[in-house]
């Protein structure tokens, strides 16, 4: 008597599906018009306060100046950014504190400016008609 492993498997009953259309064969539709602003459907208010950078970006400003003085031959932003990231990751928290303090201070200023902006917007002092002027 033959065991199951010695017999050939029976073919499975399969269902044949219609062929898929490839993206190359589909007729091209007209491109959709892009919104004027960067985000979908929203227009950016130019008077809205801009968010402040993080502590790392304040560090990066200082680091770039020092790095360019030490390595004048390096022109690639990729290499400068990589060196900056490595230095930031190796730094002790005590060294980073001054950048965190600066970022916190600027964030507080932003929050105040944003509160004033929202208050003016609610009161109607910032109207959409004045944007066109």
Automatic annotation (TrEMBL):
Region Disordered: start-end pairs: 1-50
InterPro entries tied to this protein: HMG_box_dom, HMG_box_dom_sf, HMGB_plant
Gene3D superfamilies documented for this protein: High mobility group box domain
UniProt xrefs under PANTHER family: HIGH MOBILITY GROUP B PROTEIN 14, HIGH MOBILITY GROUP B PROTEIN 4-RELATED
Name listed for the protein in its UniProt record: HMG box domain-containing protein
Gene Ontology MF terms: DNA binding
Swiss-Prot/TrEMBL keywords: DNA-binding, Nucleus
Coiled coil: none
Pfam families: HMG_box
Bias (Basic and acidic residues): 33-46
Cellular-component GO terms for this entry: nucleus
Locations listed in the record: Nucleus
The HMG box domain, residue ranges: 49-118
Organism the protein comes from: Lolium multiflorum
């Amino acid at each position: 008597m033959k065991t199951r492993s010695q017999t050939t498997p029976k073919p499975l009953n399969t269902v044949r599906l219609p062929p898929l259309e490839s993206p190359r064969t589909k007729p091209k539709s007209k491109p959709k018009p892009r919104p004027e602003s960067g985000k979908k459907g929203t227009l950016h208010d130019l008077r809205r306060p801009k968010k402040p950078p993080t502590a790392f970006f304040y560090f990066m400003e200082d680091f770039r100046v020092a790095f360019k003085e030490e390595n004048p031959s390096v022109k690639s932003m990729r290499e400068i950014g990589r060196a900056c990231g490595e230095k930031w990751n190796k730094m002790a928290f005590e060294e980073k504190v001054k950048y965190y303090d600066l970022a916190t201070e600027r964030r507080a200023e932003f929050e105040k400016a944003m509160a004033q902006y929202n208050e003016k917007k609610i009161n109607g002092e910032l109207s959409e008609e004045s944007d066109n002027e």
